[in-house]
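Entry type: protein chain
Record version: 2
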Amino acid sequence: MPNERPQRLAEIVKTAWECPAEDLPSLLAQECGSDVELRAEVEILLGQQAQISQFLEQPALHHVAESFLGDEISLQGEVIGQYEITSLIARGGMGEVYLARDRELRRNVALKLIRRGMHSREIARHFKREELLLASLNHPHIAQLYGGGVTRDGLPFFAMEYVEGQRLDEHCKERQLSIDNRLQLFRKVCAAVTYAHQHLVIHRDIKPSNIRVTAEGEPKLLDFGIAKLLEEGSLPNQTMLTLAHAMTPEYASPEQVRGEVIATTSDVYSLGVLLYELLTGTKPYRLTSRNPKELESAITDQVPERPSTVCEKRPTSLRGDLDNIVLMALRKEPARRYESAAQFSEDIRRYLEGLPVRARKDTFTYRASRFVGRNRLAAAAAAIVFVTLVSGVVMTAKEKRKADRRFNDVRQMANSFIFEVDDAIQKGPTQARAMLVRRTLTYLDRLAQESDNDRELQLELAAGYLKVGDVQGKPYRPNLGDSTGALASYRKAEEILQ
């Protein structure tokens, strides 16, 4: 029976969220009966019905009725363990976060405590579980746990890194960061989420207010209060409070909204919503009201518009690959999204470096456009050589058979430029030049066999061999160091000219 209690609590809270305000008292009386502790826990999580309408703005676990607590007691100046409380930072449904001073290490910390009057076994388990999750994570872009303990009143607390900075979206807006700078910042957030996933933790509440940017411009991921473990039993006392609606709906995945099984791809979806907002300044859903049912329907059914169509200021910079990257992360079916936050981040890296991305179908035309985009000078030079060779073929082709054969040679050479040379350029300029020399020599040798007595074509062939010889080993200029190959090319040019 004890193991069934969290599930029962979740079912009552979910039903109550969907219950009209006038029917709420009778529903609680019917569902909780004489179990006073159960009803108190439901009321703590549910809050007053007037606060339920605010659930679009905050995580569902933070919807609590202030009237249940009475007057708030200021803890300013109170000493808990080695920490002296300075001021209140934030107040949520179960806990409060205070700015405190570590009197031993002389540094500021964020001290999180269960709120007075909120203590129960389930909330204590949930609170302790968040501390244990943070203890398992050590990453430069995740707020670090310093330690924990119990107050004189027997309430658990833990101290963590105090991140003094702006929300991620406000930081980008205030500094008017470029698209590329926003993407670089976002990739650091992805790195933090990837690290959490590697340690079997799903955050489940990724949003701008849970990501703070320090004065040095480094993002920090906060608030693992409703995070979930991928493997049950990974931590002691694993029985905990798990609510299907424990989330911030506007950043939740379709499977979260439907109360289905949650996986790392749910965080990928939330990252997609976050990136959409960072790039466009708006959320991906078209809503006519703040009605929860409408939002739920939008999340599960509505296909978001392309970021480039909703952003008037930077449509051209968003159009194409970036559109596809964001929309792939926001696909309704988890299996069709990026498999991981790392894969999501990798596609952004490839976009920033002008490489083909996973979110775009890999066609010859697309690869060619990306190749030209990141190698404009090399592509222009190659295009001149290519056009010259094609023109020579067209000008000197006297028979259809020869023209067809030469066309096939040109086509093969074009494919080589796009694919093999592209790969070689990524490995280094020397390998790329060597690849160009090999392909050009192959083509020139074939053409030389059919040049006959075409004087203009022979002159072009000779010039081509001379140029290749220079690249292979002409002294006192950058070359491949292939003096033997260079002499062979020069001799071919000499023979043709003679």
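Comment: The longest strand covers residues 83-91.
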